[in-house]
Amino acid sequence: MVKLSRIYGTPLQIVRSPVLMPFIQSSTYHYRLGYSLIVCGFALLIVLANGCSPKSRIKNTDSTVVQTATVGESAERVRREAASQTDTVAADSTSAHTPSASSESLELLSLLAKQVETSGSVSKESDLQNMYIRYLTDEGYKPKVDKDGDVQFKHESKVYFISVDERDPEFFRIVLAGIWSIESELERQKVLVAADHSNATSKVAKVFTLRDRVWVSIEVFLSKPEQFRQIFKRSMSALQNGVIEFVKKMKE
């Protein structure tokens, strides 16, 4: 686009043009004032047109592009520096540790993390046995590991054992074996009725037969194996209540 000043001249040149100057000089005061306002308005349009010319817009666009390019270059420079620092740290780490040692360390950390996530760091048979033995010893019992790997202890002259199952460490089970002998089929029928009665009226306790003997147990699931400590005493009480209900029914 061609500037308006190039076509019509500057505002001063327009006012002093041979066309307008004689007319302005010969006109009355009011006409002079009107023409002056017209010329000023026209001059203002020229100034505004010059300020919004394509060149100025191109300049502004160019400056924006330059600024954008500068920001992009700065960001790229920062990324390059960060990458070089990362490479340097990796190189230092590699020089300080051999690849085999690094891979072994990662495998060890992964193994430890999995072990912690599984069941609260207590999962092996020996871990479970030692955990139960320590607790029972602190409570005044004399526990021992029997031939099946369970932890055996005596309470009020009766032999109990805690089942140990490393495949399911959150399963907690106390068993009292052989509380009643079955000597006939008639007695077996009576035992089954008494067992049903005890199981229906007792909490947690379970009375069942194993060949010709009657056993009683309590069986619960824990969120962590170590939590058995909080329920051990109540579990023993519940088990004894199951025995009482069974014997009471048998003597009717």
Mean pLDDT, nearest integer? 76
Number of domains: 3
Beta content comes to 15-25%
The proportion of residues forming helix, as a percent range, comes to 55-70%
Instruction: Work out the radius of gyration.
Output: 49 Å
Number of helices: 9
The CATH topology of the largest domain turns out to be: Yope Regulator, Chain: A
**Helix-strand topology string:** HHHHHHHEEEEHEEH
Low-confidence stretches: 1-5, 52-71, 93-99, 116-121
CATH class of the largest domain: Alpha Beta
From the coordinates shown, what is the CATH architecture of the largest domain?
Answer: 2-Layer Sandwich
**Structural class based on helices, strands and sheet pairing:** alpha+beta
Strand neighbour order, sheet with most strands: 1-2-3-4-6-5
Terminus-to-terminus distance: 118 Å
Strand segment count: 6
The biggest beta sheet reads: 6 strands, antiparallel
Form type:
elongated
Description:
With 252 residues, the chain is α+β, with helices and mostly antiparallel strands. It has three domains: 4-51; 56-96; 125-250, Yope Regulator, Chain: A (2-Layer Sandwich). It has helices at residues 4-8, 11-15, 21-26, 29-51, 54-96, 99-119, 125-138, 185-201, 228-250, and strands at 144-145, 151-155, 158-162, 171-181, 205-210, 213-221. It is elongated, with a radius of gyration of 49 Å.
